[in-house]
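Risk mitigation, structural track. In case the binding assays with PRP fail to produce interpretable data, a predicted complex structure has been prepared as a fallback.
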Amino acid sequence: MPANLEHIQQIMAEADTLFSTEEVEAAIDRVAEQINQKLFDSNPVVFCVMNGGLIFSGKLLTKLTFPLEQSYLHASRYRNETSGGELFWKAKPEVSFMDREVLIIDDILDEGHTLTAIVDFCKRAGASKVHTAVLMDKQHERKARPDLKADFVGLYCEDRYIFGYGMDYKGYWRNAAGIYAVKGM
Ligand SMILES: O=P(O)(O)OC[C@H]1O[C@H](OP(=O)(O)OP(=O)(O)O)[C@H](O)[C@@H]1O
Ligand code: HPA
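Fallback model:
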């Protein structure tokens, strides 16, 4: 169904700003510094989780100062909706990472089913170690496992539906240069 652009515009007009561009950029700098310290001699394969991980990955990668290979994978659970369902693999990794360290970069750890499935996949495919980096970790009690955490986290946010910096509202506003929460959600 074609998007109702008036509705999409209204979502942005009424949204609450959770983090400004400057705050998000500072968080990306912090994560880059942590990754540079931890993975500098690990020769990792770095995977961007499409689509949401695109902007965080792009910005982060330019701040990583050691040799690495980069690729992408696409697993989707929300399919442009605001609640998650079954995980659907749209593109599995094509490069071999047998006995390699892997860094998975995604926009958000929400319930964590997506990241859990991707990490399991990488381990089954022979990765020697799997590291995870997310721009946002949403704070609530519905994680796939109670102890589920990413190794590198940009910012923590409240339990609301958020968009911007790669995260979408019904397929839109991934391009928004800040982190916003939908009014009433
Ligand atoms: O922690 P979870 O509850 O599993 O949710 C997080 C995942 O959901 C979003 O992807 P989505 O399925 O919307 O696909 P997309 O990136 O293509 O929008 C987001 O990019 C994460 O990959
Ligand atoms: O709050 C969210 N916003 C955008 N995409 C998401 N995927 C999981 N949670 C979210």
